[in-house]
Structure of Dihydroorotase:
Amino acid sequence: METTPNLLIQNAKPVSSNHDGDDSVDIRIKEGVISEIGSGLKKQDGEQVFDAGGAYISGGWMDMHVHFREPGYEHKETVETGCRSAMFGGFTEVACMPNTKPAIHTRDVVEFIRNKSEHQLVDVHPIGCATKERKGESIAEMSDMKEGGAVAFSDDGDPVYNSQVMRVALEYSSMLGVPIINHEEDLALSRPGHMNEGDVSARLGLDGTPGIAEEAMIARDILLAGFTGGHIHVAHISTRKAVDLVRRAKEDGVNVTTEVCTHHFDLTDKEIESRNFDTNVKMHPPLRTQDDVDAMIEGLVDGTIDVICTDHAPHAIEEKEVEFIYAPNGIIGLETAWSISVKRLLQSNKLSLQQLMDKLVINPRQILNLEIPEIKEGQSANLTIFNTDEEWTYNKNEVRSKSKNSPYLGETLTGRALAVYNKKRFAINTLKN
């Protein structure tokens, strides 16, 4: 990708804590820094011009929960293709989970990923393992990984199951000032579930995973966080009772934050029945009930849920095109996250644009102690240009990920990211339809 240090963005509506998105401005970027904000700015020599046409502009979006699969599973996704997918979705920063091969459990793997992403527009922040090789037996080399660039620790894909190990992880990570992100699952209660346990699973004859498998582990981690003073971040929350647990813990002053995936506030377990066992609606945590979906939205509205993420989980076609019970969990989500957020949160007036930016721009970076981009003169330019009303069709030609496992293929969506700018690089997202 060519560098674009000097860019003039015309006719864009800023949305941030200081801008409500009502008025259009021009933004001049020189050597990657916002040098001027005003009206009627004219092109200067050596400057590229992009007319936003009245679209919105915000700080670059961040997804703090993605799987880029490299190293070890490059047939699913690579750092390069994952960044390409993120750009199309409007994201300029991501944090990638450590269930790679080898796992991100030592500093050299952290630095490998950082080096791989150095020349990409998207900043890729590795999340190191909480335990060595993700085995849950002993704490990984957290301090060394943090020095190498790790921003948090997790065994995602599996929970830190041993309570004493989790206690030590929380105590150690709190000294480093970073969160433990736990995959909240009591394995004794959840396995071998292939979907949510409930009326639909009973009707379909599939082994289900009950919500209590998630809730029991969250309750344990909240208690441990309160006991140790550590910061627990609940990954991909999905049940009403889980949201209630986090809500009460926050009220009690426990250092707990949480995220929700876009599919968990959009789709329900009935999709498995209506789509005739389509493996692109198989994920973990599984799709839950409509009441749980409603609870996710309520949690976003009242601030219990801090962050919108995707759990972007690419799988090769041959891995997903099998019987439902044999298919791996997970879907890609970076490219459709904004449209789903528009449909479920903005069009329904559940959240304002500014509140959505809190979930996509500010909160994930606050949780991971990263610099928050601002639309202000003198600040490094890290920007997303987007709309909320354009209709477009998400077909296989539009997929930028290396994998195609999305339940939204073929659907007409509303709202998309038009362009992104970061690290002196500029990318325009042109549809292929």
